[in-house]
Inverse folding.
């Protein structure tokens, strides 16, 4: 069966049919997915019963794996999954839901804020690939917002104002927004802010997009409160319903998104239930702006 | 003869037929109070108020709130006396505050959805804002109807939040914008207070969401979980269908019921003079018992 893509939303997001991502892909299939990503920015594939190894193999079609080495607050010994994965579950090493006041759970609540994966790295990610191994019945949708359409909808004065702005991104800022701010000196050093252009241009399509994320804590040259108020306004603009696709998970869904073109977030769910989601990430290849010395 | 035209499908009314620069009859006061109970926001155009006339009009509805604790400006830095809240962008010499002035940083918190004085144990009843000098572009005041927002929640959420108690402080709203360098004295002044999340209007009996950027926690909840949940509620409660955006004309007087409404100001060019003066009718009850200081 030929690979096909059906549109899920008026401005972006497509559903792919006719592809088994558990098996090796032909060059044409890889090209078709890449072309679909350039156009739709989010692709949904149903019924992809992936093992971890198969997910890694599929991901490698699109570039190098971004190795997370855990996150800022999870020690290697606490990892449930291979370091090639970002563990987006609510589970501990023994596959049990994290306790309500567990630091790891509270840290993971940052995913409820709109963000772009790895925008806090000097070289931010391209694709994220999220596999729904165990999904929840109610809530836990992943929502996506099209940052190209959001950019296009800005008035000309705003486009001119933001064209050259540089933002500072750090996990400290997104976690700080939720009042999670107790970090050790080592953690703070690991989360040192990086710089990203606010307006970026897609290397293939040439389309501009807003590079927004909850990880943003400032704009270079702006007083912090003014920067944050302005970023909040842009976020509100960029996440209006006409730019948003809400994905309701079925088990074995694989959803791929281009972090250069979309923001995403998870919605609230009963996290005493098991939700096992595993993400692989394609590392980016370039910075959006020179870093501060 | 007072008449009120509803502005949006769910709330906000435009009042005609009254000059509030002059003393009001008992009937006029009752008509405005009834309008507030119903519409929660009232707009009155062409009211050329002096400060004293604004105070006099405000006293029709209760006692003026004139307590310190609402701002970091020192007495010497204040442009207006304590019974008149300065919602302008001006310093005591009537000049726009410098971009990096600490008072301006603090005032930027008004860009976040909030309810006036929700950080006081006894939160405010009405706010009355007079547009003395308005800006041409931006600087709208937006209002969101917390009764309609409550009504639109699903039953499971209504049950979940019914007895929740939030902690409110100016520290939290300012902290959201990264303004956190406060003196010990300021911290003491901004000590959190408790407020019910669901409150009931004393006249209409309608329930509403008592949300505000000042809310930084829910009693008994881990802080990040509380903040993520409050953000979801604020997002729900400020959908366009619950919002009225007021574009100012000079001499508009807009009054709102903080027990039923959140509001915020939208961005404007702050090198321009925007002189807005607010009087506030103090509330008369706490929403929940306070904890004693340790």
């Amino acid at each position: 069966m030929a690979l096909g893509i059906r549109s899920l939303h008026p401005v972006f997001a497509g559903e792919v049919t006719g592809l088994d991502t558990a098996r090796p892909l032909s060059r044409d299939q890889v090209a078709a997915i890449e072309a679909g990503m350039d156009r739709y920015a989010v692709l949904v594939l149903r019924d992809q019963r992936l093992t971890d190894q198969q997910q890694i193999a599929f991901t490698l079609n699109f570039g190098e794996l971004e190795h997370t080495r855990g996150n800022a607050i999870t020690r290697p010994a606490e990892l449930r999954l291979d370091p090639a994965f970002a563990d987006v579950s609510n589970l501990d090493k023994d596959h049990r839901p994290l306790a309500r006041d567990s630091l790891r759970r509270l840290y993971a609540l940052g995913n409820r804020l709109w963000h772009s994966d790895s925008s806090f790295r000097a070289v931010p990610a391209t694709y994220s690939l999220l596999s729904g191994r165990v999904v929840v019945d109610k809530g836990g949708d992943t929502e996506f917002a099209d940052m190209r359409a959001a950019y296009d909808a800005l008035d000309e004065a705003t486009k001119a104002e933001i064209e050259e702005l540089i933002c500072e991104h750090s996990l400290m800022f997104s976690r700080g927004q939720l009042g999670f701010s107790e970090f050790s000196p080592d953690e703070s050093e690991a989360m040192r802010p990086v710089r990203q252009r606010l307006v970026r241009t897609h290397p293939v399509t040439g389309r501009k997009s807003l590079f927004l994320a909850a990880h943003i804590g400032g704009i270079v040259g702006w007083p912090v409160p003014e920067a944050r108020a302005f970023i909040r306004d842009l976020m509100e603009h960029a996440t209006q319903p006409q730019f948003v696709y809400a994905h309701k998970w079925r088990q074995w869904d694989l959803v791929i998104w281009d972090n250069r073109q979309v923001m995403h977030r998870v919605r609230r769910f009963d996290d005493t239930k098991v939700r096992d989601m595993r993400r692989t990430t394609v590392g980016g290849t370039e910075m959006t702006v020179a870093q501060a010395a | 003869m007072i008449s009120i035209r509803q502005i949006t499908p769910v709330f906000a009314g435009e009042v005609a037929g009254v000059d509030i620069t002059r003393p009001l009859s008992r009937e006029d006061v009752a008509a405005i109070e009834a309008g507030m109970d119903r519409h929660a926001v009232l707009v009155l155009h062409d009211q050329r108020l002096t400060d004293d006339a604004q105070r006099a009009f405000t006293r029709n509805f209760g006692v003026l709130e004139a307590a310190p604790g609402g701002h970091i400006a020192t007495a010497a830095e204040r442009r207006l006396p304590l019974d008149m809240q300065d919602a302008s962008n001006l310093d005591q010499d009537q000049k726009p505050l410098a971009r990096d002035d600490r008072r301006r940083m603090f005032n930027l918190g008004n860009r976040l959805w909030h309810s006036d004085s929700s950080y006081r144990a006894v939160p405010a009843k009405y706010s009355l804002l007079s547009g003395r000098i308005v800006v041409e572009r931006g600087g709208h005041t937006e209002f969101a109807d917390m009764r309609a927002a409550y009504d639109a929640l699903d039953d499971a959420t209504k049950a979940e939040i019914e007895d929740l108690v939030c902690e409110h402080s100016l520290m939290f709203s300012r902290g959201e914008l990264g303004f956190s360098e406060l003196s010990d004295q300021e911290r003491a002044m901004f000590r959190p207070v408790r407020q019910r999340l669901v409150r009931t209007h004393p006249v209409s009996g309608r329930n509403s969401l008592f949300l505000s950027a000042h809310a930084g926690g829910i009693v008994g909840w881990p802080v990040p979980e509380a903040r993520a949940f409050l953000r979801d509620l604020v997002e729900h409660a400020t959908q366009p269908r619950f919002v009225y955006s007021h574009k100012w004309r000079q001499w508009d007087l807009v009054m709102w019921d903080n027990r039923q409404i959140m509001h915020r100001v939208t961005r404007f060019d702050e090198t321009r003079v925007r002189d807005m003066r607010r009087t506030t009718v103090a509330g008369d009850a706490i929403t929940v018992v306070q904890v004693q200081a340790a």
Q: What stands out?
A: The helical segments of chain A are 27-40, 52-59, 103-108, 147-152, 156-162, 171-177, 185-190, 224-238. The longest helix of chain A spans residues 224-238. The mean pLDDT of chain A is 95. Chain A touches chain B at residues 100-101, 106-107, 109-110, 112-113, 175, 177-180, 217-218, 223-230, 232-233, 267-268 (CB under 8 Å).
